[in-house]
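Thread: Newbie trying to understand structure tokens

Hi all, I'm a second-year student working on a class project, and my supervisor (Dr. K.) asked me to get a predicted structure for one chain before our next meeting. I've only ever worked with sequences, so writing a 3D structure as a token string is new to me. If someone could post the tokens and maybe explain what I'm looking at, I'd be very grateful. Here's the chain:
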Amino acid sequence: MPIRIGTRGSKLALAQTGKVMQKLDELGIGSEQVIINTQGDASTQVPLHEIGGQGVFVRALDDAILAGTIDCAVHSMKDIPAFRPSGLVTAAVMKRDSPADYLAHKGEIGNIRVIGTSSTRRKAQLLRHDPEITIRDLRGNVDTRIRKLAGGEYDAIMLAEAGLERLGITIEGERLPPEKFVPSPNQGTVAVVSRADPSLMEVLSALDHPESRTDIAIERAVMEQLGGGCFTPLGIYSCGGRLIAEVLSLDGTRAERIEVDVKAIEEAREEGRKLKAKAQDLIDDAYKRLGIVP
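---
Reply by user tm_fold:
Sure, no problem. This is what the structure looks like when written as tokens:
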């Protein structure tokens, strides 16, 4: 009986799921795709922090796994909230693609004045880099965002480089170095979430990339200590044990940052606790300004 794999219906989600299905097929394991609609896909005109953050893309798929409608689901790892329902496991972490953000634009970069993004992190980092630019909300799938850029609604838009690569899209612009524009935790990583069934977990574990799993585990350990979700501008990036993490004010004028080597998850948690202690006022202020009750 084929493994039933749940996915959102966007082009990017389908491309990611197709990659997982191809890997399974190469291992002689049958699978079938099941499209699940999520609140995040339905509410594209509303900023993410107003409808519950990145977790809105995951909740419907979690429910479908727990209900037995599907066996597992494919996600962009950065969309998976820190705290997970009982009975679910991250059965596989695929080899990480580019973690970087990509600034897509037309013409000279010095002429950019209006940039589209709905990410509080990207907004804060951009304003820190250039306080004179204007940030306007931008949601929708990659095609929609690029179409709005082409239509002149924005001078530039922010995208995840990994998403462009998975979709085979080449567009004028530039990669932003993750050491300076620290990405969202787990950005560029695809994960397979399944019910906690040992036989299913064993099959899916063949897709796991240990080095990527270690890096994303370090990032999530810091994220869990910081909290904040997509409400607080924060970036967390680990590569081969080198950890960079920062918390910013919404306007990008203030930030707390760490850059350290970590060898174990508990070390990452401790670094996360220390960073939170230094950045608590930034976290509290973000919640207050966005009208979010922690």
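A couple of things are worth pointing out once you decode it. The chain is about 35% helix and 25% strand. The chain has three domains: 1-94+189-208, 101-176, 210-294. Feel free to ask follow-ups in this thread.
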